[in-house]
Amino acid sequence: MKPFEVITHKEKKIAVLDLSDTSPEQAIGLLREAEQKIVRMPLKSVRIFTDARNAVYNKESMEALKAFSMKAGPYIKASATTGQEGLRSVAKKAVETTAKRDINSFKTRQEALDWLASQE
Question: Which residue in 26, 40, 95, 113 has the fewest CB atoms around it within 10 Å?
């Protein structure tokens, strides 16, 4: 799987951002790459799934995550994630507060993709 790609799931386009097992430095680069692609899409059109399993955050990557959420926010229709246990749940809450939108957490990728595909 690519770090950022648009897939088709149940006939719906879903942007997939794979931050799993990333270091803070890797995550910053991936967030910038994803942002550049998302802001080229129509407003309120993007269903995005973020896999954050085992991602490691620090102050700089948290700031990058919040900046990504603010810039990409107008393009996001629905957002789902996996891997938000422990300290990563704090990161999720911070992003939700900054972006002023809900990010739905799921135990599995399949559950997240199914939910995103159901969003109209």
Answer: 40
